[in-house]
Amino acid sequence: MAHDTQTLNKNRMPLHPEHPVWVFGYGSLIHKVDFPYLQRRPAYIEDWQRRFWQGSHDHRGTPEAPGRVLTLIPAQGQQCVGMAYQVKPEVFEHLDHREKNGYLRIETALHFVDGNQPESERGLVYIAGPDNAAYLGPASDLEIAQQIACSEGPSGPNDEYVLKLAEALRQLDTEDDHVFSIESLLVKPK
Ligand code: SIN
Questions:
Q1: Is the CB of 136 inside a 6 Å radius of any atom of ligand 1?
Q2: Which of 66, 125, 135, 139 could form a disulfide with 143 if both were Cys (CB 3.0 to 4.6 A apart)?
């Protein structure tokens, strides 16, 4: 699969030009909201967990020295808490560009945690699977933290991605052992 998934996403899943769509954010989409939305609600999706297994050549690293950002991996029985946004379909021009480095839109059920109705909706989530060219895969928490500590790209330092996300997860009152472990291991090179 090519690095750039924009065309793939458009062709695989054309969107109705007038129907708003829910999109679930579990990483930078939780706290870096550089797109308009109709409504936003905290939510979880089932059977997935966050891992810093995706390479970032375009945002938090470079082609020569990729950073590490989140993707989701299948995890039976786990809930992944994040933020869901209802957006107009044209917003996917921007989102597909932002998530172009290996992420495909996948359809999923979203479960809202704010106690309001409806309790769930169908929506989309961007997942970078193991067959994309930017995938880095597993490494120890220490190795991941070391790589993140010395990576930087056009969107800023890679450690900022982790620190802002960890803060956003605390605000959502959710625990994530993987994210918090990497956060605790981050030490900037001297
Ligand atoms: C997401 O936040 O939902 C996708 C991964 C990212 O952009 O960090």
A1: no
A2: 139
Determine whether the shortest distance from the Cβ of 69 to ligand 1 is under 6 A.
yes
Any domain includes 86: yes
Ligand 1, atom 4, lies closest to the CA of 27
Please give the chain's pLDDT, 190 residues, in tens: 447 899 999 988 889 999 999 999 999 999 999 999 999 999 999 999 999 999 999 899 999 999 999 999 999 999 999 999 999 999 999 999 999 999 999 999 999 999 999 999 999 999 999 999 999 999 999 999 999 999 999 999 999 999 999 999 999 999 999 999 999 999 765 5
Provide the CATH number for the domain around residue 108: 3.10.490.10
Tell me how many domains the chain contains.
1
Bridge partners (DSSP) listed for residue 54 = 69, 135
Instruction: Report if residue 190 sits inside a domain.
Output: no
In the annotation, is 99 catalytic? yes
Distance CA 53, CA 143 (A): 11
Ligand 1 midpoint to CA 54 (Å):
10
Model pTM score: 0.95
Contact 10, 94 (CB under 8 A): no
